[in-house]
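Q: Entry one of two.
A:
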Amino acid sequence: MAVGIKTMAIVVAALGIKSFVHGILAENKKPASGEPNVFHGFVICEYSSDPAVYFGFISFAFLVASTTTGLYSVFYPYKGKSVPLNALVQNATWVVFFLVALCVSCFAGAMLLWATITELLHLTHKVHHNMNTDCPTAKTGLFGGAAFMALNASLFWLISLMLTDNTRDDYFDDDLPEISKGIDGKVYTVDSNEKQQIKVQECP
């Protein structure tokens, strides 16, 4: 079964939305801080149920899947026809959105990993020798910001895919043979190479 551009777009969007939802869940489920238990010379932090790390890693996984699918969809040979890279890079708008999609995806992934690993470190390193510690968690807003960046990344991949579709149409339209009617009434087809030869012969 051949994969179409619409199918690829749906997959990229669905994965991006899943990454966004799990990032928001990580932000909402993360406790503001832990409860310090003071002992002689050290403090042990107790945290309530904190699934933020779980949701954070899932959000990152969906972001990687969305980015990989978006990157693959841009260069996928739909209907068995692939557009060469030099034809794509001639479209300045495509280049801009493609690079933006890559950068936003990397930034979103870095934010998600930063927030998730920070939260994991807080949960695993519970013993503190600083008696004034307030048992912190990952900074508020990191998961939420990363979630929105992941959603934006999928949107930029969708725009890149749309521009790829336009470039494909322009590229393959130029390769279509031109149908013309001769003096004898017969129908002839002239491909792009023959059209160039005719133009050269017509020049004085």
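Q: Entry two of two.
A:
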Amino acid sequence: MSEYIFKMPDIGEGVVEAEITAWYIKVGEMVEEDTPVADAMTDKATVELTAPVTGRVISVGCAEGEIMAIGGDLVVFETDGDVPSPKPAPKKEEVKTAPQIETPKPTPIAKPAAKPAPAPTPRTGAKPLASPAVRKSAMDQDIDLSLVTPTGKAGQITHEDLQAFEKGGISIYQKKTGVTEVKVIGMRRVIAQRMAESKRNIPHFSYVESIDMTEV
């Protein structure tokens, strides 16, 4: 018995990753060569991936709806005979650089101990404090900053607060509202992403004109 690692193939020029939208195999199943194993979707097309060998599925690299990088471990097979693994991509020649001359570092000046920052206070009815980078990250993840508990200085929301909210805050929000979130994958995810980009990038305006219709 031997293991064969099926790497995520290069399915298009300039493509660096793909979303696995469907699995046709399960761990423990026997799979024949050229049997469809998964569907991979990129910005250009959806491609059906087939098994390069005959064997038993030991593990898969990701779940449906997750992104897999090109060259990542997609499926691990257990085969009866010795199957040669795919050849790795040729390594690029390292460019030698001239040795750097170390310059003496100035002696650091001892700074007075900083006073502990005051504990963040909740801001009710006010706009949440966050940096532009944090706001963009929250917008990309569809996170309402008013629901995030800030831990930064002066009640500012940090990237760590967004990560904590994404892990535990969403489930708490669901318990409070009774709303169940359904993960959007495949074409629907791309459509939602494009609509959000259009909303952010395309200027929106309203035009209103009043006309006196008394004499008509």
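A: Comment on entry two: The longest strand covers residues 17-23. Residues 120 and 154 are 5 Å apart (CA to CA).
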